[in-house]
Amino acid sequence: MMEPTKIRPKLVYSPGYDIRWLGIEKLHPLDGCKYGRTWKVLLDRFGDKLQSATITPTAATVELLQTIHTPEYLQQLTNSHYVAQVLELSSLDWVPNGILDRHVLQPMRLATMGTVIAAETALETGIAINLSGGYHHARRDLGAGFCVYSDIAIAIASLRQSGQLTATDSIAIIDLDAHQGNGLARIFECDRTVHILDMYNQNIYPQDRRAIERIDRNLPLTSGTRDAEYLDKLQQYLPSFLSSIERPKIAFYNAGTDIYEDDPLGRLKISAEGVLARDRFVFQTLVAARIPVVMVLSGGYTSESYQLVAKSVGEVWETWGL
Predict the structure, then answer these.
(1) How far apart are CA 35 and CA 130, in angstroms?
(2) Rounded CA gap, 175 and 300, in Å?
(3) Which of 1, 275, 293, 321 has the smallest number of CB atoms closer than 10 Å to its CB?
(4) Are strands 10-12 and 54-55 parallel, antiparallel or unpaired?
(5) Which of 315, 296, 304, 311 is nearest to 122 (CA)?
(6) Which string of b and e fits 264-297 if b means at least 16 CB within 10 Å?
(7) Whole domain around residue 127: which residue ranges?
(8) C-alpha span between 153 and 149 (Å, rounded)
(9) Whole-angstrom Cα distance, residue 225 to residue 277?
(10) Total domains in the fold of the chain
């Protein structure tokens, strides 16, 4: 288990994370280029020190994807109509699957491998941040909500396969995206070594009642929730959640910026300062508990999303990386 004095944050990023092709990135509220934008802000700020602490992933292989996803589901992803449904972009029905695979699914496979590498790295360095990932709606046999591959579940399976985690090791998922992480709850429905805290807007997608029953610390919010209530609830329940379980060998932090007050999908009213305070508290709590943490970006549907992420990651670097 890591010691706080030995923390050496690492970043995982590829220019291939960005989703762009003939304006496809403009068809969905998600900024498909926020990953590269975040990287540029951070690189301009920290320069060579950040560059030397950054790992570039290759794409996840079919064999790795099959540690969680069924072959039948992966075969469905060769059908443009099905992919368009998962991405919630019916206008992509006409696009040849090869193009969708190259410009949409390949970036997601890179991001999935990024989460795997971040998990491996966090066990050694204490903190690793993947500048993408967080596809928490994807299930073993179903994609939904712009989530194709369950990167966190795949990372857990990979760590177990390699022996870096045992079958009985405790694992925490802290999901603070504005949307309920129903895919992860479904995947780990019968796996009680994975402990899930999920704080989300209960008035929006996906409202998955079966998944809610699996969440260990279920913290539903209502549309319009503001900083004070949000942060009070997080500060009350995250420490008690961690103290109620065997100390996790690793924590996955789904740091969605769709809680931001201007986000059209999250419908919460958390200020930019509140987003930063949230991320600061999560990192401080996990570091104090000596729990290695992997941060992934998850949702965020405003043009400011990349700036919010860059501020939070920048503070991590200033606190532990310089």
Answers:
(1) 10
(2) 14
(3) 1
(4) parallel
(5) 296
(6) ebbbbbbeeebbbbbbeebbebbbebebbbbbbb
(7) 4-321
(8) 9
(9) 15
(10) 1
Task: Tell whether the torsion through CA atoms of 313, 316, 320 and 322 is positive or negative.
Answer: positive
CB within 8 Å of 166: residues ≥ 6 apart: 160
Spatial distance between the Cα atoms of 180 and 170, rounded to a whole number of angstroms: 22
Amino acid at 194: V
CA distance 46 to 126: 20
**What tokens appear for 43 in the block?**
């690189």
The CATH number that applies at residue 149 is 3.40.800.20
Are 168 and 122 a contacting pair, CB within 8 Å? Answer: no
171-175: strand order across its sheet = 54-55, 10-12, 127-130, 293-296, 250-254, 171-175, 194-201, 217-221
- Catalytic option among 69, 103, 136, 137: 137
pTM of the model: 0.97
DSSP state of 226: B
What distance in Å separates the CA atoms of residue 193 and residue 168, rounded to the nearest whole number? 6
Say if CB 260 and CB 216 are below 8 A apart.
no
Residue 69 annotated as catalytic: no
Q: How far apart are the first and last CA of the chain?
A: 22
Q: What is the amino acid identity at position 33?
A: C
